[in-house]
Design brief:
Order of helices and strands: HEEEEEEEEH
Strand order of the largest sheet: 2-3-6
Structural class: mainly beta
Largest sheet: 3 strands, antiparallel
Distance between the termini: 43 Å
CATH architecture of the largest domain: Sandwich
Shape: rod-shaped
Number of domains: 2
Number of helices: 2
Strand content: over 45%
Low-confidence stretches: none
CATH class of the largest domain: Mainly Beta
Number of strands: 8
Helix content: 10-25%
CATH topology of the largest domain: Immunoglobulin-like
Length: 200
């Protein structure tokens, strides 16, 4: 009889132990990472066009009325350039003369050919619409013994003019976009006593 009682007590203890260990009895906290949507503000460089005023140096307008030469007093070549200021502003017009002289030198037992260039600048102060002539006297030329030729170049004064141009600039524009972010979240679950004792 005592053996049966012992068996019954053992079965009861086993059942109680199973109930205690397997039936969810304890609530525990745990952390999970959760995705969520958020609105983010950012700035973007956006191009735009704008009219810009700037200044620039511009040569004065002119025209060469005529370029000619003559012999003064029968012995001196004179080279001339007549310039007209066609601009609305007054200014200085520089005429650059270049005269090339060549000849032959004969010495005992030798004949030498030679040439040399001479330069001279003449300034003409011209009002708007005015015409003047720049002259250069080539006193170094012997018209009886030398060959000679000439050329010229005109350099006009400059004026400052105001101009406009379209330029591309950038400005920062505030914009928004939806982004996915994450944050930790605490949750709870019920575990058995056995699981709690083993893992928590």
């Amino acid at each position: 009889m005592s053996g049966k009682i012992g068996i019954a007590v053992g079965v009861i203890i086993a059942i109680v132990a199973l109930v205690v260990c397997l039936v969810p009895l304890r609530e525990v906290a745990y952390t999970v990472t959760v995705d969520y949507q958020d609105t983010e503000t950012y700035y973007e460089n956006v191009p735009y066009e704008e009219m810009e005023t700037y200044t620039e140096a511009e040569p004065l307008g002119y025209e060469v009325v005529k370029a000619y030469d003559y012999i003064d007093a029968g012995i001196i070549p004179v080279v001339c350039v007549t310039v007209r200021n066609t601009d609305t502003d007054a200014g200085i017009f520089t005429v650059h003369f270049t005269v090339k002289v060549s000849g032959t030198t004969i010495t005992p037992g030798r004949i030498q050919l030679w040439s040399v260039s001479h330069s001279d600048d003449k300034e003409l102060h011209l009002k708007s619409g005015e015409t003047k002539t720049a002259k250069h006297h080539a006193v170094y030329v012997d018209i009886d013994r030398n060959d000679w030729s000439w050329n010229y170049k005109v350099t006009p004064d400059t004026k400052t003019v105001e101009k406009q141009r379209t330029v591309t600039k950038y400005r920062q524009v505030e914009k928004q976009r939806t982004v996915t972010k994450q944050h930790p979240e605490t949750r709870y679950k019920t575990v058995t006593l056995l699981d709690y004792l083993l893992h928590y």
